[in-house]
Amino acid sequence: MDWVERIFGCCICIFIMGVFSGCASPPAVVDRRLSEYEVLRPGVYIVYRPAVRPGTTFDSAKKELAEILTSESKPIVVDNSLPVHVLRPLLGHSISEKMLELQISTGKIILPFEELAQYPLLIAMIQEGTPATLYNIYFENRVSFFFGDDDLPAAKRFADALLFMKQSPQIEKERQLALFEPIAARYRESKIKPQMSEEQRRLIVQANALNQKKEYGKAIEQYSKAIALDPTSYPAAYFNLALLSAQENKPLEAIFFMKHYLLLTPEAKDARSAQDKIYEWELMLK
Q: Are residues 147 and 232 in the same domain?
């Protein structure tokens, strides 16, 4: 992986450039393919928008990611959550149903698949201030994956598999909503609505208090415990869970809970504003 050595050398030069303004940027390699690509910004071009391949399953996508992350074509990464962005070799990884975990020299980078839904996914070719062409998959405030000039096929396979993982939480939530629809229908048709138990009331009162204290994560836990006891006795719990999830920057969760609320109470006075909230959160997923 000679390109890794060249890129690390480039990082040093870029750092020097920041200190000594007289240092010139390395000339970009002229690529005749550039006219075919969409310009993201000067020197950065979109070369691939991933697509889920027919027949992809969770297991096959997981296997694809694992093979690339342990191959000679594996990317080097940047932890975008840190104030200083430095290229780091990938030391290890693990993949579960909910997240991809990367091990680098500075610690772990955890990528929950559900949270990736709010980030665009594409491969950009970088030919600005680098001695070699780089292919980048970028998640703002999370991580950047850098593949070398000869590793575009691997980068495409990686992006395709990652797109499936990114979409899998939404597919699972749609399945759960479908299971909830007959429960909600029975609730709407029932003339006598279920009443909260004392334990549910305790949990909801605690959730409301935690919300007032702006302890949103703990409030979500208490509301979730309440609806686990009875999913229909307090529809407003779903409304509150939706707003709290949005507050925690989890638009997919917010949409999921608000749809539960509307399934239970489509004629509620705030149904219009609830649906409008869904439209707002959907924008965050594009």
A: no
Q: Domain check: are 77 and 144 in the same one?
A: yes
CA dihedral (37, 38, 42, 45) in degrees, to 10, reads -60
Encode pLDDT of 64-114 as tens digits.
Answer: 999 999 999 999 999 998 888 888 999 999 999 899 999 999 899 999 998
Domains held by the chain: number = 2
134 shares its domain with 207: no
Q: Which amino acid, one-letter code, is at 223?
A: Y
Give the residue numbers spanning the domain of 32.
Answer: 2-166
CA 71 to chain centre: 24
Contacts 24+ apart (CB under 8 A), 54-62: 56/160, 56/161, 56/164, 58/97, 58/164, 58/165, 58/168, 61/161, 61/162, 61/164, 61/165, 61/168, 62/95, 62/161, 62/165
Helix spans in the chain (H): 2-19, 58-69, 113-116, 152-189, 198-212, 216-229, 236-247, 251-264, 271-284
Structure tokens at 207: 């959730």
- The answer to whether position 179 is within a domain reads no
CA distances from 238 to 56, 207, 224, 260, 276 (A): 32, 12, 9, 6, 16
Strand partners for 77 = 88, 145
CB neighbourhood size of 14 (10 A): 14
Q: What is the CATH number of the domain that holds 200?
A: 1.25.40.10
Query: Does 181 map to a domain?
Result: no
Q: What tokens does 177 get?
A: 């909503």
- The predicted model scores a pTM of 0.69
